[in-house]
Fold each of these.
Amino acid sequence: AWPRVDIDANPYKASFPLFSEHPGIAFLDSAATAQRPACVLDAQKRFYETMNANPLRGLYSLSIEATEAISSVRRQIAALIGAVDEKGAPRANEVVFTRNTSESLNLVARSFAPTVLEPGDEVAITIMEHHSNLIPWQQACRAAGATLVYLRPTKTGELTDEEIAAKIGPKTKIVAATQVSNVLGVRVPVEKLARAVHAQGGYMVVDAAQSVPHMPVDVRELGADFLAFSAHKALGPMGVGVLWGKLELLEAADPFLTGGEMIDSVTESGAVWAPVPEKFEAGTQDAAGIYATGVALDYLANQVGYEAIRSREAALVHYAMSRLVELPWIDILGSIYWDRHHGVISFNVRGIHPHDVASILDMHNVCIRAGHHCAQPLLAWLECENLACCRASLAFYNDRADVDAFIDGLQSVWSTFHA
Ligand code: PMP
């Protein structure tokens, strides 16, 4: 049974200024970046208008206010992702602000990995990883003399217990995996991977870029040691990323960016790092962006709410899949079951290059993504022609009309090539 949500009605669109600027646009590329509601745009402006000062540097009240704005978002994020102590208090100092998921994952691979990796060790990742959870591990393995091992799902994106048992063993020090694939839309069993690597005394790194926008994420339930996501995919501004990590692991790691704001003291010959998280936050932060990220996550998790997001997105994906499978010239990547897709449907139009598909859809005011989606090893492994595919991604602010425009657009793509 699929969620009975009225996808003809759209109580959300009016809160997103871009949709009034572009009436009739069908924006089906939220996996690349989400649209932002007015409250987030207002927050960014409000920061500069009412509390702008360089945080941390000043002892005057405006600067203290800016610092407090950042601290309060740290607490909010820790609480949101279940990074709390035994009494339920958020472990705010475990939240590091970066520029994006890529930087967060690079930080783990560059700063933490060298503290545990030795020659001959293994790092395991899935073949479904975005390049930003793949190249940093190639580099970390190269630097440490370790081996990168790929967990390969079935062609529909399921990681079997056999595959997990075969690839995670005594040599595995780190497993890094996305919680939701940005190509197949499938949910990866991160909890199982975490149990398997912890049984070997290793560590679990979770790329939550595609999960935080769609579902509640709890680092305790996942068994994560590190978790990364980007504000811009979760209704927040571009340029703000989050890395959560267990305090003792962050404390043991050296910073990979150095400079202002991240030290306790500096002499001619060396420096003493500031405590975590400042140790990892060299230079001036995007304070307005971080402040607006707090507003975005509050809107997402509390005002719209994950339950409403989940059921509405499920209804949209269900409808989109039911229309797509009616088109015999569409090949879906991964599962054809709608409930395996978390906001993301990748596909090809038989015999037509994905770039042509996206360009023709654009003429119909439909935005989808075409290309390798920063997952070339996955597309190679799936034997995707041209190492490319089309991807439509849905968010709760989409509606049935968006999906209908998409399907009509696809009919037009087909007839353009088969007139
Ligand atoms: N991981 C996944 C699963 C993603 O989908 C993306 C963005 N497409 C990233 C990482 C990288 O995010 P960012 O570009 O914000 O660093």
Amino acid sequence: MSTKVIKNGTVVTADLTYEADVLIENGVITKIGANLSGDEVLDATGCYVMPGGIDPHTHLEMPFMGTYSSDDFETGTRAALSGGTTMVVDFCLPAPGQSLLEALQAWDNKSTKAMCDYSFHMAVTWWGEQVFNEMETVVREKGINTFKHFMAYKGALMVNDDEMYASFQRCAELGALPLVHAENGDVVASLQQKLLAEGNNGPEAHAYSRPPQVEGEAANRAIMIADMAGVPLYIVHVSCEEAHEAIRRARQLGKRVYGEPLVQHLVLDETEYQHPDWDHAARRVMSPPFRSKQHQDSLWAGLAAGSLQVVATDHCAFTTEQKRYGVGDFTKIPNGTGGLEDRLPVLWTKGVATGRLTMNEFVAVTSTNIAKIMNMYPKKGAILVGADADILVLDPKAKKTIAADTQASAIDYNVFEGVEVTGLPRFVLTRGHVAVRDGNFEGRMGHGRFVARKPDQPVNRALSTWKELTAPRKVERTGIPASGV
Ligand code: DUC
Ligand code: ZN
Ligand code: ZN
Ligand code: ZN
């Protein structure tokens, strides 16, 4: 069996930085140390050898808002690998009323094209006995331990509080982790109608219809509901101080609540929606929308302080033609932006190169923390003997200007167009196979495998807050007043 060795690099993990060679056999790291040799040498002189990025939030070939997101498992995972991300966790989205297992079959079929490893979250888009029962199969037989709940998209994907509470309790029983898209869908729907009635139909109105308060309210509500269900909680795409504040406060009280900002929200702001070009603004329509600088500062601070743990993309790419479904009515612009290829270089440039994040924090928020929260550490997210050889060799001196013309994604623009980035992959390995070599793509369609994730990691078994498990006491009364009238 042929071996590979990554030589002369500096290993950077979530907690250590040191010089070492890394030996790979059969897709797994088998030795880390000085002067290792192997059949093939990958020279990492001047580079950092890190766990490949994990993007815990993608929507590939997903039916949504009357169309399908345009990156599929081929172009999406090609984009991922091109930018140093070696695993994605995609959302399996049953239509309301559809069987979870049937939806999962569709996702299994689509994902056979994947070039890197992948896993799924299951969305709970409706509630009933069938969902309750199928959740157990999803966890125990299908290797999925995370369930997503939309608190927005009223009349489509949204679940109400009673459904969310029931599903959270089910997650607690199964040792699974609930995820929420936290926005108050009722308030959003009513703001949308008001804005349209006032003649505000352009893409800027999308942002006005989803102010930070709708996110802050929903984040607080989800945290309290999780607390009552006795389950930890993961809040996706945290974009504002109001939601971050709710997470901070919950964590300070001992609740296991995790927050995931997106690289887009860290770097791009609400002025994008004021652009005179309709296409420019519409291409940036996503939910939650981009915010002001003050919110960006809050998110950066949260990553440094540890109150926010993960940086994702919510990669849900639509072409300009698809965005134009919303000409004359902003509520019909398909929500979503790309970012899979750009997440690591943009976060390195705007985070590590500016001093806002250390290199170790960079690895933690782009890979290791995600692997731990999602129960796949240390198979993923680690440079350790026995870990999968999903490795990014990052050259901190390599530079490029982000441009749609040269990207792997299947869409015709890039929200980071013109941003100059440093810190690019010299090599990217997916389970030991070289997918990027000196900037050239060598990935293979169908190489990716599904990563099953178990429930009941200790952190997921813990109650949201510590409680002594005693049954509530029913009070026996002798004197019962006669009913009135
Ligand atoms: N937000 C988006 O912008 N797109 C996909 C789904 C979501 O919640
Ligand atoms: Zn969402
Ligand atoms: Zn423009
Ligand atoms: Zn999403």
Amino acid sequence: MNASPMPTVGVIMGSQSDWETMKHGCEQLEALGIAYEARIVSAHRTPDRLADYAKTARERGLKVIIAGAGGAAHLPGMCAAWTTLPVFGVPVESRTLKGQDSLLSIVQMPAGVPVGTLAIGKAGAINAALLAASVLSLSNDELAARLKGFRDKQTHSVAEVPVG
Ligand code: RP5
């Protein structure tokens, strides 16, 4: 489900292998009725695709970019270098270092080029989507209401007494 035909969130990832993680963020965007596009854009393997994507993102109507990558995860930072849109980085869990390499690669940006860095893996992908929703809700009251509804439902779903 997309609230509008024009995507406002761009979800990019360095590899097909990142989709297993990033799809959770896309599902969260869909649940909130946010139009998005998902693309494979690699900082290392397709550098020109990345430059084109990030440089044209604002004029194409995107408001927020979510970038997921693993290992030497330069995608979010290089994307942020090409655009002044908000960029949220999702460290994908790597096989060898469990995503700690991804996290440190994304979070340690030099002053002047920000990337909002989320948690490693699925939680990070979901929270990146929720953070994007928060940003978009600043100028969209209907989305703000849906976001509040999501939070309320989540709160009510937490049992007070453990079972089992
Ligand atoms: C990164 O390298 C990607 O973001 C991915 O997380 C990691 C491994 O990529 P593949 O070798 O699975 O394509 O660029």
